[in-house]
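User: Structure with manganese (II) ion, C-alpha coordinates only please.
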Amino acid sequence: MNIISKDVIAAENAKQAHALASDYAHLGEQLARRGIDIDAVKRRVANYAVAVPSWGVGTGGTRFARFPGEGEPRNIFDKLEDCAVIHELTRATPTVSLHIPWDKVSDLSALKEKGAALGLGFDAMNSNTFSDAPQQEHSYKYGSLSHANAATRRQAIEHNIECIEIGRKLGSKALTVWIGDGTNFPGQADFTRSFERYLEAMKAIYKHLPDDWRIFSEHKMYEPAFYSTVVQDWGTNYLIAKELGDKAYCLVDLGHHAPNVNIEMIVARLIQFGKLGGFHFNDSKYGDDDLDTGSIDPYRLFLVFNELVNAEERKAEGFAPAHMLDQSHNVTDPIESLMRSATEVCRAYAQGLLVDRAALAGYQEEHDALMASETLKTAFRTDVEPILAMARHEGGGAIDPVATYRAAGYRAKVAADRPAVAGGSGGIV
Ligand code: LRH
Ligand code: MN
Ligand code: MN
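Assistant:
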Protein backbone atom coordinates (compact mmCIF):
# COMPACT_ATOMS: atom_id res chain seq x y z
CA MET A 1 0.00 0.00 0.00
CA ASN A 2 1.39 3.38 -1.07
CA ILE A 3 0.49 6.54 0.80
CA ILE A 4 1.65 8.82 -2.00
CA SER A 5 -0.36 7.84 -5.04
CA LYS A 6 1.69 5.96 -7.61
CA ASP A 7 -0.04 8.04 -10.26
CA VAL A 8 1.33 11.25 -8.77
CA ILE A 9 4.83 9.74 -8.66
CA ALA A 10 4.51 8.54 -12.25
CA ALA A 11 3.19 11.90 -13.46
CA GLU A 12 6.02 13.81 -11.78
CA ASN A 13 8.62 11.32 -13.01
CA ALA A 14 7.28 11.58 -16.56
CA LYS A 15 8.23 15.28 -16.57
CA GLN A 16 11.85 14.46 -15.82
CA ALA A 17 12.50 10.96 -17.18
CA HIS A 18 13.83 12.13 -20.54
CA ALA A 19 16.35 14.56 -19.08
CA LEU A 20 17.40 11.98 -16.51
CA ALA A 21 18.08 9.34 -19.17
CA SER A 22 20.31 11.75 -21.02
CA ASP A 23 22.14 12.95 -17.87
CA TYR A 24 22.67 9.35 -16.78
CA ALA A 25 24.05 8.35 -20.19
CA HIS A 26 26.40 11.34 -20.18
CA LEU A 27 27.67 10.62 -16.67
CA GLY A 28 28.01 6.95 -17.63
CA GLU A 29 30.33 7.97 -20.46
CA GLN A 30 32.41 10.18 -18.18
CA LEU A 31 32.74 7.47 -15.55
CA ALA A 32 33.59 4.84 -18.15
CA ARG A 33 36.60 7.00 -19.08
CA ARG A 34 37.65 6.67 -15.44
CA GLY A 35 37.16 2.90 -15.61
CA ILE A 36 33.95 2.97 -13.56
CA ASP A 37 30.78 1.07 -14.47
CA ILE A 38 27.90 3.42 -13.66
CA ASP A 39 25.35 0.61 -13.44
CA ALA A 40 27.43 -1.17 -10.81
CA VAL A 41 27.57 2.01 -8.72
CA LYS A 42 23.83 2.51 -9.16
CA ARG A 43 23.12 -1.05 -7.96
CA ARG A 44 25.12 -0.48 -4.78
CA VAL A 45 23.39 2.84 -4.17
CA ALA A 46 20.00 1.20 -4.72
CA ASN A 47 20.85 -1.34 -1.99
CA TYR A 48 21.94 1.33 0.47
CA ALA A 49 19.57 2.12 3.35
CA VAL A 50 19.41 4.54 6.24
CA ALA A 51 16.88 4.47 9.10
CA VAL A 52 14.54 7.35 9.87
CA PRO A 53 14.24 8.44 13.52
CA SER A 54 10.63 8.41 14.71
CA TRP A 55 11.35 11.64 16.60
CA GLY A 56 12.46 13.34 13.40
CA VAL A 57 9.06 13.45 11.75
CA GLY A 58 7.64 15.91 14.27
CA THR A 59 8.73 19.53 14.48
CA GLY A 60 11.50 19.74 17.06
CA GLY A 61 12.22 23.00 18.71
CA THR A 62 14.89 25.32 19.83
CA ARG A 63 16.01 25.32 23.43
CA PHE A 64 13.54 28.16 23.94
CA ALA A 65 10.41 27.29 22.06
CA ARG A 66 8.63 24.89 19.82
CA PHE A 67 6.66 26.16 16.86
CA PRO A 68 4.15 23.49 15.91
CA GLY A 69 3.76 22.67 12.23
CA GLU A 70 0.55 21.83 10.48
CA GLY A 71 -0.32 18.16 10.13
CA GLU A 72 2.24 16.94 12.64
CA PRO A 73 1.90 13.27 13.59
CA ARG A 74 -0.32 12.68 16.63
CA ASN A 75 1.02 9.27 17.57
CA ILE A 76 3.35 6.50 16.50
CA PHE A 77 0.96 5.31 13.80
CA ASP A 78 0.95 8.75 12.17
CA LYS A 79 4.73 8.85 12.52
CA LEU A 80 5.02 5.55 10.69
CA GLU A 81 2.91 6.91 7.85
CA ASP A 82 5.19 9.92 7.53
CA CYS A 83 8.20 7.60 7.54
CA ALA A 84 6.55 5.52 4.83
CA VAL A 85 6.16 8.64 2.67
CA ILE A 86 9.90 9.26 2.99
CA HIS A 87 10.66 5.72 1.88
CA GLU A 88 8.13 5.69 -0.94
CA LEU A 89 9.73 8.73 -2.50
CA THR A 90 13.41 8.11 -1.74
CA ARG A 91 13.46 4.29 -1.64
CA ALA A 92 16.34 4.66 0.81
CA THR A 93 14.68 4.45 4.24
CA PRO A 94 13.04 1.05 4.77
CA THR A 95 13.34 1.12 8.57
CA VAL A 96 12.35 3.32 11.50
CA SER A 97 14.23 3.80 14.75
CA LEU A 98 11.89 4.17 17.73
CA HIS A 99 12.43 6.21 20.89
CA ILE A 100 10.79 5.01 24.10
CA PRO A 101 8.76 6.44 25.83
CA TRP A 102 8.44 9.31 23.31
CA ASP A 103 6.78 6.71 21.12
CA LYS A 104 3.80 5.31 22.97
CA VAL A 105 3.77 1.71 21.86
CA SER A 106 1.03 -0.02 23.82
CA ASP A 107 -0.29 -2.29 21.04
CA LEU A 108 2.85 -3.92 19.67
CA SER A 109 1.17 -6.33 17.29
CA ALA A 110 -0.84 -3.49 15.74
CA LEU A 111 2.36 -1.51 15.39
CA LYS A 112 4.22 -4.37 13.78
CA GLU A 113 1.33 -4.96 11.40
CA LYS A 114 1.19 -1.29 10.51
CA GLY A 115 4.91 -1.32 9.76
CA ALA A 116 4.56 -4.40 7.58
CA ALA A 117 1.58 -2.93 5.73
CA LEU A 118 3.65 0.18 4.97
CA GLY A 119 6.72 -1.86 4.01
CA LEU A 120 8.71 -0.64 7.02
CA GLY A 121 10.86 -2.55 9.48
CA PHE A 122 12.18 -1.48 12.88
CA ASP A 123 15.79 -0.45 13.36
CA ALA A 124 17.64 0.17 16.63
CA MET A 125 15.52 0.97 19.69
CA ASN A 126 16.43 4.12 21.63
CA SER A 127 15.92 4.35 25.36
CA ASN A 128 15.31 7.63 27.13
CA THR A 129 16.69 8.20 30.61
CA PHE A 130 17.54 11.82 29.92
CA SER A 131 14.08 13.12 30.74
CA ASP A 132 11.47 12.14 33.27
CA ALA A 133 8.42 10.27 32.06
CA PRO A 134 5.10 11.27 33.71
CA GLN A 135 4.53 8.80 36.54
CA GLN A 136 8.12 7.73 37.08
CA GLU A 137 9.27 7.15 40.64
CA HIS A 138 12.85 8.46 40.59
CA SER A 139 13.91 11.59 38.74
CA TYR A 140 16.83 11.71 36.30
CA LYS A 141 17.61 15.28 37.21
CA TYR A 142 20.99 14.20 38.60
CA GLY A 143 21.61 11.34 36.21
CA SER A 144 20.33 7.91 35.30
CA LEU A 145 22.64 4.94 34.69
CA SER A 146 25.42 6.68 36.63
CA HIS A 147 23.17 8.16 39.34
CA ALA A 148 24.50 8.05 42.88
CA ASN A 149 21.27 6.43 44.06
CA ALA A 150 21.01 2.68 43.32
CA ALA A 151 17.21 2.77 42.99
CA THR A 152 17.42 5.40 40.26
CA ARG A 153 20.03 3.35 38.43
CA ARG A 154 17.84 0.28 38.74
CA GLN A 155 14.88 2.17 37.27
CA ALA A 156 17.03 3.26 34.31
CA ILE A 157 18.29 -0.30 33.82
CA GLU A 158 14.72 -1.64 33.88
CA HIS A 159 13.69 0.91 31.29
CA ASN A 160 16.45 -0.22 28.94
CA ILE A 161 15.46 -3.86 29.44
CA GLU A 162 11.89 -2.91 28.60
CA CYS A 163 13.14 -1.28 25.39
CA ILE A 164 14.84 -4.53 24.46
CA GLU A 165 11.61 -6.43 25.12
CA ILE A 166 9.59 -4.05 22.97
CA GLY A 167 12.20 -4.22 20.22
CA ARG A 168 12.22 -8.03 20.26
CA LYS A 169 8.51 -8.09 19.55
CA LEU A 170 8.94 -5.65 16.67
CA GLY A 171 11.90 -7.36 15.05
CA SER A 172 14.55 -4.83 16.04
CA LYS A 173 18.08 -6.10 16.62
CA ALA A 174 19.79 -3.32 18.54
CA LEU A 175 19.50 -0.95 21.45
CA THR A 176 21.05 2.51 21.41
CA VAL A 177 21.81 4.03 24.79
CA TRP A 178 22.50 7.70 25.11
CA ILE A 179 22.47 9.26 28.56
CA GLY A 180 22.61 12.92 29.45
CA ASP A 181 24.40 12.17 32.73
CA GLY A 182 27.07 14.63 33.72
CA THR A 183 27.69 17.71 35.80
CA ASN A 184 27.48 21.45 35.49
CA PHE A 185 30.15 22.33 38.04
CA PRO A 186 33.60 21.10 38.97
CA GLY A 187 33.34 18.98 42.06
CA GLN A 188 29.66 18.17 41.55
CA ALA A 189 30.41 14.46 41.05
CA ASP A 190 33.33 12.09 41.17
CA PHE A 191 34.38 11.25 37.59
CA THR A 192 35.63 7.79 38.43
CA ARG A 193 32.73 6.70 40.65
CA SER A 194 30.20 7.96 38.09
CA PHE A 195 31.82 5.97 35.31
CA GLU A 196 32.07 2.86 37.50
CA ARG A 197 28.36 3.08 38.25
CA TYR A 198 27.57 3.60 34.58
CA LEU A 199 29.60 0.55 33.55
CA GLU A 200 27.96 -1.59 36.19
CA ALA A 201 24.51 -0.51 35.01
CA MET A 202 25.36 -1.12 31.36
CA LYS A 203 26.61 -4.59 32.25
CA ALA A 204 23.24 -5.31 33.86
CA ILE A 205 21.49 -4.25 30.64
CA TYR A 206 23.95 -6.19 28.50
CA LYS A 207 23.01 -9.39 30.34
CA HIS A 208 19.52 -9.05 28.91
CA LEU A 209 20.66 -8.55 25.35
CA PRO A 210 19.55 -11.41 23.07
CA ASP A 211 22.40 -13.22 21.33
CA ASP A 212 21.61 -11.75 17.93
CA TRP A 213 21.35 -8.17 19.25
CA ARG A 214 23.90 -5.40 19.56
CA ILE A 215 24.04 -2.59 22.06
CA PHE A 216 25.29 0.82 20.90
CA SER A 217 26.57 3.41 23.33
CA GLU A 218 26.45 6.95 21.99
CA HIS A 219 28.95 9.52 23.16
CA LYS A 220 28.39 13.28 23.23
CA MET A 221 30.80 15.91 24.38
CA TYR A 222 28.38 18.09 26.31
CA GLU A 223 24.71 19.07 26.67
CA PRO A 224 22.61 18.91 28.73
CA ALA A 225 25.54 18.80 31.16
CA PHE A 226 27.92 21.69 30.55
CA TYR A 227 30.95 20.91 32.64
CA SER A 228 31.43 17.16 32.35
CA THR A 229 29.58 14.34 30.64
CA VAL A 230 29.94 10.70 31.64
CA VAL A 231 30.12 9.31 28.07
CA GLN A 232 31.81 12.30 26.51
CA ASP A 233 33.96 11.06 23.66
CA TRP A 234 34.91 8.13 21.47
CA GLY A 235 37.75 7.07 23.80
CA THR A 236 35.36 6.58 26.70
CA ASN A 237 32.91 5.00 24.29
CA TYR A 238 35.51 2.52 23.11
CA LEU A 239 36.30 1.60 26.71
CA ILE A 240 32.61 0.93 27.29
CA ALA A 241 32.32 -1.33 24.26
CA LYS A 242 35.47 -3.21 25.30
CA GLU A 243 34.31 -3.61 28.89
CA LEU A 244 30.88 -4.87 27.93
CA GLY A 245 31.80 -7.50 25.36
CA ASP A 246 31.37 -8.65 21.78
CA LYS A 247 27.83 -7.41 21.33
CA ALA A 248 28.73 -3.87 22.39
CA TYR A 249 29.68 -1.18 19.88
CA CYS A 250 30.13 2.57 19.64
CA LEU A 251 27.63 4.84 17.93
CA VAL A 252 28.90 8.01 16.30
CA ASP A 253 26.50 10.93 16.10
CA LEU A 254 28.10 13.45 13.76
CA GLY A 255 26.96 16.38 15.91
CA HIS A 256 28.47 15.14 19.16
CA HIS A 257 32.05 16.33 18.81
CA ALA A 258 33.96 19.53 19.30
CA PRO A 259 34.09 21.73 16.18
CA ASN A 260 36.88 20.68 13.80
CA VAL A 261 37.33 17.23 15.34
CA ASN A 262 38.45 14.75 12.70
CA ILE A 263 35.39 12.50 12.80
CA GLU A 264 36.42 10.42 9.80
CA MET A 265 39.53 9.44 11.68
CA ILE A 266 37.49 8.38 14.70
CA VAL A 267 35.44 6.29 12.32
CA ALA A 268 38.59 4.69 10.90
CA ARG A 269 39.88 3.86 14.39
CA LEU A 270 36.62 2.28 15.48
CA ILE A 271 36.51 0.22 12.29
CA GLN A 272 40.10 -0.92 12.77
CA PHE A 273 39.32 -2.21 16.22
CA GLY A 274 35.96 -3.75 15.30
CA LYS A 275 33.85 -1.44 17.42
CA LEU A 276 31.99 0.82 15.01
CA GLY A 277 28.33 0.13 15.73
CA GLY A 278 26.60 2.80 13.73
CA PHE A 279 25.80 6.40 13.02
CA HIS A 280 23.40 9.13 13.77
CA PHE A 281 23.77 11.27 10.67
CA ASN A 282 23.07 14.99 10.82
CA ASP A 283 25.11 18.14 10.37
CA SER A 284 26.28 20.92 12.61
CA LYS A 285 27.96 24.29 12.58
CA TYR A 286 28.50 24.80 16.29
CA GLY A 287 27.34 21.96 18.51
CA ASP A 288 24.70 19.25 18.46
CA ASP A 289 22.70 21.29 15.97
CA ASP A 290 20.84 18.33 14.42
CA LEU A 291 20.69 20.07 11.05
CA ASP A 292 19.93 18.22 7.83
CA THR A 293 22.69 15.82 6.88
CA GLY A 294 25.19 17.34 4.48
CA SER A 295 23.65 20.81 4.75
CA ILE A 296 26.70 22.45 6.34
CA ASP A 297 29.75 20.37 5.50
CA PRO A 298 29.09 17.82 2.77
CA TYR A 299 32.82 17.24 2.31
CA ARG A 300 33.12 15.94 5.86
CA LEU A 301 30.21 13.59 5.24
CA PHE A 302 31.99 12.38 2.11
CA LEU A 303 35.21 11.81 4.06
CA VAL A 304 33.29 9.67 6.56
CA PHE A 305 31.84 7.66 3.69
CA ASN A 306 35.26 7.38 2.14
CA GLU A 307 36.29 5.45 5.26
CA LEU A 308 33.13 3.37 5.17
CA VAL A 309 33.54 2.39 1.53
CA ASN A 310 37.20 1.64 2.14
CA ALA A 311 36.20 -0.74 4.96
CA GLU A 312 33.42 -2.27 2.87
CA GLU A 313 35.74 -2.91 -0.05
CA ARG A 314 38.54 -4.41 2.00
CA LYS A 315 35.93 -6.47 3.90
CA ALA A 316 37.08 -5.24 7.30
CA GLU A 317 36.32 -7.81 9.98
CA GLY A 318 33.07 -7.29 11.86
CA PHE A 319 32.20 -4.23 9.79
CA ALA A 320 28.40 -3.83 9.69
CA PRO A 321 27.48 -0.38 10.98
CA ALA A 322 23.87 0.68 11.40
CA HIS A 323 23.00 3.83 9.49
CA MET A 324 20.45 6.16 11.04
CA LEU A 325 19.48 9.80 10.78
CA ASP A 326 19.11 11.91 13.91
CA GLN A 327 17.79 15.38 13.24
CA SER A 328 15.46 17.99 14.55
CA HIS A 329 13.50 20.34 12.32
CA ASN A 330 12.28 23.75 13.21
CA VAL A 331 12.00 25.77 10.02
CA THR A 332 11.39 23.06 7.41
CA ASP A 333 8.78 20.40 6.83
CA PRO A 334 10.36 17.39 8.62
CA ILE A 335 9.47 15.01 5.78
CA GLU A 336 11.25 17.22 3.26
CA SER A 337 14.29 17.57 5.51
CA LEU A 338 14.48 13.83 6.16
CA MET A 339 14.18 13.08 2.44
CA ARG A 340 16.96 15.52 1.75
CA SER A 341 19.15 13.93 4.41
CA ALA A 342 18.50 10.41 3.17
CA THR A 343 19.48 11.58 -0.30
CA GLU A 344 22.61 13.25 1.04
CA VAL A 345 23.88 10.10 2.71
CA CYS A 346 23.23 8.21 -0.54
CA ARG A 347 25.18 10.92 -2.36
CA ALA A 348 28.15 10.64 -0.02
CA TYR A 349 28.06 6.87 -0.39
CA ALA A 350 27.97 7.10 -4.19
CA GLN A 351 30.85 9.59 -4.17
CA GLY A 352 32.77 7.27 -1.85
CA LEU A 353 32.29 4.47 -4.38
CA LEU A 354 33.89 6.63 -7.06
CA VAL A 355 37.22 7.02 -5.25
CA ASP A 356 40.00 5.44 -7.29
CA ARG A 357 41.44 3.41 -4.41
CA ALA A 358 44.33 1.90 -6.36
CA ALA A 359 45.47 5.35 -7.48
CA LEU A 360 45.04 6.70 -3.95
CA ALA A 361 47.17 3.91 -2.48
CA GLY A 362 49.84 4.64 -5.10
CA TYR A 363 49.94 8.35 -4.28
CA GLN A 364 50.12 7.54 -0.58
CA GLU A 365 53.12 5.25 -1.22
CA GLU A 366 54.84 7.95 -3.25
CA HIS A 367 54.07 10.68 -0.69
CA ASP A 368 52.28 12.61 -3.40
CA ALA A 369 50.05 14.54 -1.03
CA LEU A 370 48.62 16.76 -3.72
CA MET A 371 47.48 13.96 -6.01
CA ALA A 372 46.24 11.87 -3.10
CA SER A 373 43.96 14.66 -1.99
CA GLU A 374 42.97 15.37 -5.62
CA THR A 375 41.93 11.74 -5.94
CA LEU A 376 39.41 12.27 -3.17
CA LYS A 377 38.36 15.61 -4.59
CA THR A 378 37.75 14.10 -8.03
CA ALA A 379 35.24 11.69 -6.50
CA PHE A 380 33.66 14.39 -4.36
CA ARG A 381 33.32 16.83 -7.25
CA THR A 382 31.44 14.32 -9.39
CA ASP A 383 27.77 15.22 -9.61
CA VAL A 384 26.23 11.81 -8.87
CA GLU A 385 22.64 13.06 -8.89
CA PRO A 386 21.76 11.10 -12.06
CA ILE A 387 22.85 7.88 -10.31
CA LEU A 388 20.75 8.63 -7.24
CA ALA A 389 17.76 9.72 -9.28
CA MET A 390 17.94 6.68 -11.54
CA ALA A 391 18.18 4.33 -8.53
CA ARG A 392 15.08 5.98 -7.04
CA HIS A 393 13.21 5.95 -10.35
CA GLU A 394 13.90 2.29 -11.07
CA GLY A 395 12.99 1.39 -7.49
CA GLY A 396 9.54 2.96 -7.85
CA GLY A 397 10.44 6.20 -6.09
CA ALA A 398 10.59 9.80 -7.22
CA ILE A 399 13.18 11.32 -9.52
CA ASP A 400 12.71 14.51 -7.51
CA PRO A 401 11.37 13.54 -4.04
CA VAL A 402 10.67 17.05 -2.73
CA ALA A 403 8.87 18.22 -5.90
CA THR A 404 6.79 15.03 -5.94
CA TYR A 405 5.97 15.36 -2.25
CA ARG A 406 4.78 18.91 -2.83
CA ALA A 407 2.79 17.90 -5.88
CA ALA A 408 1.06 15.18 -3.81
CA GLY A 409 -0.07 17.78 -1.25
CA TYR A 410 0.48 15.28 1.56
CA ARG A 411 0.96 17.75 4.41
CA ALA A 412 -2.22 19.68 3.65
CA LYS A 413 -4.16 16.42 3.38
CA VAL A 414 -3.07 15.10 6.77
CA ALA A 415 -3.46 18.51 8.37
CA ALA A 416 -7.21 18.06 8.07
CA ASP A 417 -7.07 15.17 10.57
CA ARG A 418 -4.11 16.21 12.68
CA PRO A 419 -4.61 19.37 14.69
CA ALA A 420 -1.50 21.41 15.52
CA VAL A 421 -0.10 20.55 18.95
CA ALA A 422 0.46 23.62 21.08
CA GLY A 423 3.99 24.96 21.35
CA GLY A 424 5.80 25.50 24.60
CA SER A 425 9.34 25.13 25.75
CA GLY A 426 11.69 23.27 23.48
CA GLY A 427 13.32 19.98 24.29
CA ILE A 428 17.07 19.64 24.00
CA VAL A 429 17.80 16.59 21.97
C1 LRH B 1 21.29 13.20 22.03
C2 LRH B 1 20.76 12.43 20.84
C3 LRH B 1 20.52 10.97 21.17
C4 LRH B 1 19.07 11.01 21.53
C5 LRH B 1 18.56 11.89 20.43
C6 LRH B 1 17.16 12.36 20.54
O1 LRH B 1 21.70 14.48 21.67
O2 LRH B 1 21.61 12.59 19.76
O3 LRH B 1 20.73 10.17 20.05
O4 LRH B 1 18.48 9.76 21.58
O5 LRH B 1 19.49 12.96 20.45
MN1 MN C 1 22.01 10.97 18.41
MN1 MN D 1 22.31 14.59 19.61
